[in-house]
Amino acid sequence: MDLLMGTTATGGKLCLLLRQPEGVEGRSTVVTFLPDAQPQWLQQTFEEEFVALCPAPANSHGADFLALTGEGLVYFLRSGASVQIPGAGFNQPGSRNIGRMDNLLLLGNELVATGYGGQVYRATDGENWAPAAPTFPIASVPQDTIRFGWAALQSTRSRYVFGGEVVTGLSIPTDFGGLGSATDIAAMIRAQARRDYGTLWLLEGGRWQDVELPTNSTLDQVVTADGKIVYLRFRPGVVYSTTDFADMTEVAVNDAGLSALGIHKGSALLADEASLFVLAPDGTTPFQPPLPPMTDRMLELSSSDDILHVIRESSVWRLIGGAWEEIAIPPETVVLR
What we know:
Elements: E1 3-9, E2 13-18, E3 28-34, E4 40-46, E5 50-55, E6 65-69, E7 73-76, E8 81-84, E9 101-107, E10 110-115, E11 120-123, E12 130-131, E13 145-154, E14 159-167, H1 182-192, E15 197-204, E16 207-210, E17 219-225, E18 229-234, E19 238-242, E20 249-253, E21 260-264, E22 267-271, E23 276-280, E24 283-286, E25 298-304, E26 307-312, E27 316-320, E28 323-326
């Protein structure tokens, strides 16, 4: 089993996106566990490439999970129905052709889809999408774009938090006549290749605010604990906390890399490849009980109905009844067809 991502929903439901064989593009296979009266595993394959999964809100026509494509199509898993986010993606009817979509999240009872070019769309049912704000305050710069890869809701302020990176382009002239050698050309390319860097924006009352960050690293994840404290995970392994975005406190550092943030029972959790921690505004404490020994790569933390799931590259574990157990996924379920 080779996983790309996963998420959970109420009732102990689980949805996993499988990695396609090398060379296979434009296709997605999802595996869903439904612990109904007769528990069942379902596999579905779609001729679209999914970039994100999330639990569905209650009014999503019976769907348990939703999936998003880079072109802004939202799929209702199980039924297979889909809807296009107006304006999102490239080469779609009504698309603004700003950039691809990147993530889909359920924040409280609201869905938020984010993407390149500062794209943010909201919906409450997965169908009726609208831009989160009429405009984004930064005009497109040739060959540069803002990618919003994560979002969170600071509910105590009714404020959205969007994080990601400024993806910088390569501006290379087409006339190489003045360059005397391949060494000169290589030096010119290095000089004009600028490093991507993190970006953080707040959206409150329809108004955008850019936030100064304590590091230039890419911002990989944003979560809120109890609707107030915001945790920011930067690449490769630094986490900061803040409530007002004026002051930020470094709470965790791991040069080897920090893999995931998650929320469980109102507390923020932090995972690296081998350990799990509870975050506080000024530091961390080990999570109890500790994770069992694992060797595969950490992907995501997901919690629903107070059951914590650790989704890794080739296994899924859950904490239930105070003990960790690996979820037994039938081998035939994860065989790509």
